[in-house]
Design a protein that fits this description.
Strand order of the largest sheet: 1-2-3-5-4
Helix content: 40-55%
Strand content: 15-25%
Number of strands: 5
CATH topology of the largest domain: DNA polymerase, domain 1
Order of helices and strands: EEEHHEEHHHHHHHHH
Radius of gyration: 18 Å
Largest sheet: 5 strands, mixed, barrel
CATH architecture of the largest domain: Orthogonal Bundle
């Protein structure tokens, strides 16, 4: 089992990242919480050291099945641990577990489970009432209640180089979370506007993918 990976980030998308370790590229699936905080490989190489050089360290989970060898990566051990507990719940596989962690922080998830908060859990794309009930039933005695609900990370988000496919990346991330493509596109358009559309606010035009996804999720949660 591959427990951790340290190397140079060479590809980054909502679907997967690639980390180069001494010439070998590892394809790793990460939740959006980790994706947000990774450097942009297109600009990271302009500096000479640290995260700015594209060097990343991830806690990883190795999933082996008959037709695939999959790696899942997390910036924190806490996220990896809760991921491991989620896939131990009946009828929850690695993909759904990643989607869950993309829609809720590890701390908030622990709190929701400890409180038996079915409403919060079912607000996550792909989690229905029966799945939420199983998560609470099977994990309530296996996790510790978090000290307090975490707010969005105070770490300044990495601003990615504006690319023509920023819109498509955001839509793709939402589709991976379980939303219909048409709904995802409409939500992203409301946050950013359609590709190439000009807005009066330059800040809106420069919005990074984290802003787009979070804004779209707020819109979709109300629909």
């Amino acid at each position: 089992m591959i427990a951790t990976i340290s190397g140079r980030l060479t590809h980054k998308s909502p679907e997967f990242i690639i980390v180069d370790v001494h010439g070998i590229g590892y394809r790793i699936i990460v939740p959006l919480s980790t994706y947000y905080k990774l450097p942009d490989p297109e600009t990271a190489h302009e500096t000479s050291s640290g995260q700015g050089s594209g060097q990343v360290f991830l806690h990883t989970y190795t999933h082996v099945r008959e037709d695939a060898f999959l790696l899942f990566g997390f910036l924190t051990k806490e996220e990896k641990d809760i991921f491991g507990k989620l896939i131990g719940v009946s009828q929850i596989g690695p993909k759904l577990a990643v989607n869950i962690l993309s829609g809720i922080s590890a701390v908030e998830l622990k709190n929701a489970i400890a409180r038996g908060d079915i409403i919060r859990l079912t607000s996550i794309p792909g989690v229905g009432k029966k799945t939420a009930e199983r998560i609470i039933l099977e994990l309530k005695d296996k996790i510790e209640f978090a000290i307090e609900d975490s707010q969005p990370s105070s770490v300044s988000p990495h601003h990615f180089k504006k690319r023509d496919n920023l819109f498509e990346d955001a839509v793709s991330a939402l589709v991976n979370l379980g939303y219909k493509k048409g709904m995802a596109e409409d939500a992203v358009k409301q946050v950013r506007g359609s590709p190439g559309e000009k807005h009066g606010s330059s800040e809106r035009e420069e919005a990074d993918i984290e802003d787009l996804i979070r804004g779209a999720l707020k819109i979709l949660s109300k629909s």
